[in-house]
# Entry
Amino acid sequence: MIEKSRTPFHWLLCTLLIGVAVEIHAQTPSTASPEKIYGLVIHGGAGAPAEKDATPESDRLYHDKIQEALDAGYTVLQAGGAATDAVVAAVNVMEDAGLFDAGKGSVFNSEGFCELDAAIMDGRTLSAGAVTGLQHIKNPITLARAVMDKSPHVLLMGEGAEKFAREQGFAMVPNSYFQTERRRKQWERLQEKKRNSGHTGYLYPNNPEAVGTVGCVALDKNGNLAAATSTGGTADKLAGRIGDTPIIGAGTYAHNATCAVSGTGIGEYYIRTVFGHNISALMEYKGLSLEQASSEAMKQMHDLGGRGGCIAIDREGHIVMPFTTPAMYRGFKLSDGHSDIELYGAK
# Structure
């Protein structure tokens, strides 16, 4: 059998088909999805000293401790750990530092001792745990995590919270553990200021030293969000005062559908505006971006007379760190290689 020769038309048709196949392949999107961003953001409190009042030595101490906290949380995320574990790891570092208004180094209340609050929220399940009015728990955020994981409740206070802690095997520390010399001098200075002014109450919220908290928000490799916040409250606060930190939806909030938020500032205003949930709701119901929603929430809080800041991260890995005070110690570290630490205003 003699094979038929190929005509010029046949060759032309083959060439066109090959060209079409190449074009279709070139336009077909790759099935390989880009690697999702994960990472965390932390703050060491809004209302820190203005840059002109700080020293290079103190700045270095805060910078290094924020870096240590970022590294602690990021190590958890990088190993595939949960966002809830990462935020606890980061906040533990700051609670132990003796530098921040959380854990060791917390401010004194009007009666001269420390009362601590903390909260954590899991954006995947909307589970949350919080504690308030603690006087003997070394790491309040760890106890808040235990409330979330090992109790049917969300918020425990004072003696009841510490009784639960003992049942869970937590060691107690004396209140003096939290009381640093720097904070004692701050408290004595405030008492003298009240005596000289004839003021019989307490100076908050007009006290420029009254604000400060630590917090962390994280997005893990599985796309889950979490937020954690810990504080000693506000300097010279009334004994028994509860701020926004342990109020879920105010100073601490996380929801996988939107974002994770940790606030810092004059807590009464964060409670009144339901600050953290407000950011999430503006995103979910109005379709605002994280930047737009946080800006609107900050404006609403500020218009009432509040001040402070927040950190937040959304489910895509976008972050914000706005504040209205002279400074807010803050930093972030993301898996795309971006990271930074700042103490004062944007450079």
